Amino acid sequence: SKPAGNDVIGIDLGTTNSCVAVMEGK
Fold it and tell me: What total number of domains does the chain contain?
C-alpha cells in the first residue's frame, strides 16, 4: 500500500535532488 501520491513524489524528488547535489559536489 502506498501513501498519498504527492508524498511518494515528494520523497522521489527529495531523493533525486539529494543525489544531484552530491554528484554536483564531486
Answer: 1
pLDDT in tens, 1-26: 555 655 666 666 667 777 677 777 76
Give, rounded to a whole angstrom, the gap between the first and last alpha carbons of the chain.
36
What is the C-alpha separation between 2 and 11, in angstroms, rounded? 12
Specify the pTM.
0.34
Q: How far apart are CA 24 and CA 15, in angstroms?
A: 14
| Domain hosting residue 12, numbered range | 1-25
